[in-house]
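Hello K.,

You asked for the raw outputs rather than the summary table, so here they are, unedited. I folded two proteins back to back in the same session to keep the settings identical. This is the first:
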Amino acid sequence: MPQTHIPPQLLQQSDKILIIAHLALGDFTYLQNSLRALAQAYPHLRIHVWVDELRRTDDASQWPHLKRYAIYDWLRECSFIERIYDETYSPALLEQSIGRAQAEAYPLVVSLGLLRRPAYARLARKLSPHGFVAGQTKPVHFMDVRTYLAYRKLDAVIPAYPKKEKGARHISDIYAGWFETLFGITIAPAERFPFVDIPPQWHAWSSEQLQQWGVGPQQKLIFVNGFSKAPERSWSLDRILDLARRLQSRPGWEEVHFVVNVVPEALADAERRLAAVQSPRLHLFSADQNFFQLPAMLARCQLVISVETAVMHLANAVHVPVLALMRRTSPEWTPIDQDNSTVIWVATPKGGVEEITTEQVIDHLASWPPVQQLFAA
């Protein structure tokens, strides 16, 4: 039977480790704390990260977008990560990346992939044929021989948390638990809070952008994000524009500026639709140059309204109050800063975020103390 931890002696003797993950920005917002703790506990251990692209395709028209995935900008700025594998978005590049990783002869490989766990067990062993390999598993049906054989390639396992525990623990607690089990590292609750170190040039960029928009230093700025890759987690642009219009008609809100987040590929269409509204205090935003444009802009706002994506977690990281619109399917992903966060839950157990109405958001904002304090100032 595989064990549930990496032998301490092996950790002391190894010079590097490869972490495999299918990272999204929200994942890394919390996972980075555990990686930083690993680097602090074993400063001799060089940390390399394999970013496995789940959208991998042989459609060349998709590659420019996948190549510029924002997570790479963030990873490159992390002082505790020495190397990243960021070319896994096409089958050919995947094979080249596998060859480079095999040439490293990693003594330790840990897969944190929660999706396609058997495939990641096989990948981890392929990347390190002779090293110590750990990975995620879940219970196997006795007839599922292929999955059983895949899991046998692992020297240590990270058992999946039971469904009954889903939502009972925050995702940051789950990640910390994995690293405590594998590496014997204790990560205190205060050390699980998200952070983002924004390079100075992006703070300067956000100041210049606000000047171009005509946002004065004393004017209030609200960031609204309705976009998610999953339609069931998204709030439409029509709903966002309606929210901004109705809020700006309320006493005390007349001069509030709204920053509306859109993805680069939807920017042209959003510009056409915003032009029809003709509001000087509505501004489209897209982090089309670098990931750090996003946290730099969030840090300039007094309030963030977002569906359940990385935006709401990054708002916590830059200490800006956030109103999150969430389904009931992933309660472990609620914003961690309870003092500066509030959630509107979809009413039905499996309903989408579009079920949340503009009226609900307005009513919630009116009764939420951070917003009352903001407009009392």
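The second followed immediately with the same parameters:
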Amino acid sequence: MTASINDVARAAGVSTSTVSRALRGRPGVSEEVRDRISDVAAQLGYTASRSASSLASGRTYTIGVLVPYVGRWFFGTVLDSAEKVFSAAGYDVLLYNLGSPETRKRFFTKLPVRKRVDAVLTLLIPDEEESAALRSLGVPLATTVGGTRPGFSVVGIDDRAGTESAVRHLVNLGHRRIGMISGASGPLHWTTPVERRNAYLDVLADAGIEHDAALEADGDYTVDGGERAMTELLAAVRPPTAVFAQSDEMAMGALRALRRHRLKVPEDVSVVGFDDHELADVVGLTTVAQPVAEQGAEAARLLLRRLDEPDAEPPGHVQMPIRLVLRETTAPPRPRGPQ
């Protein structure tokens, strides 16, 4: 038999009104209770009935989601958590994978989501023309990437602060040859690599460390790219004693390259990542932890609230917490003359 809202309420130990508020992203429910209700609803296979409210409201009960790379960990994690929130509230997801310039141009030219969705969650960063096209849809808009922009609710983190904590950690350990593996060839209009590189350069300058362009390499935000980038850094005339990778996947690739070069971590080279990937703890990676899944869930809840409270002032930016997680891949540099 199909589970009802009463079944969810009984299993979660709350009232049916609390279940309704929680699954629709309404305020007045603690995060702990909201998460418990979402888990119970998923376990019971419950989704809110949409037929009656659809006729009354004219809604499609479909959310459009735009992604640049559906197969990559960050985007997949955000998408998965957002979809769970939408599904529990009775909404379907219409997914558009816009990884190539051609696909992206075709989407924004035709805007196939028009009159087909009630809201849009974008995991790519639209330029001014693309942003205007999305605003023309007249539906709530949210994103988990990039900075504040008119018409969008943004759920994100402080990329600069996260990078500064990582690079300062290496400086405080005594490193002076600090390399960086970036994602300069990331998605179109991607601001994260720029923000993190600027923070890296600022920390070096504050510490009186001269920037060496030979200590930067592009890792394409992938494990294989991180391995190639680390190999490139090791070929420098004066290779780094520590490396900051702009993502954990690139950091894992760096660890693989170091192992293949018979170098020990952290004795020979320290490595710091960014994300706190689900495998970061397995490999003992020091990293900047960001709540990736929570960003997707919060963005989904914001969209649902805006649909339920269209007259309320939408939040422009929600900043999620980050923290430096110290594990086994960082240590002071070995004494070996000038660095």
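The CA atoms of residues 179 and 243 lie 4 Å apart.

Happy to rerun anything if the numbers look odd on your end.

Regards,
P.
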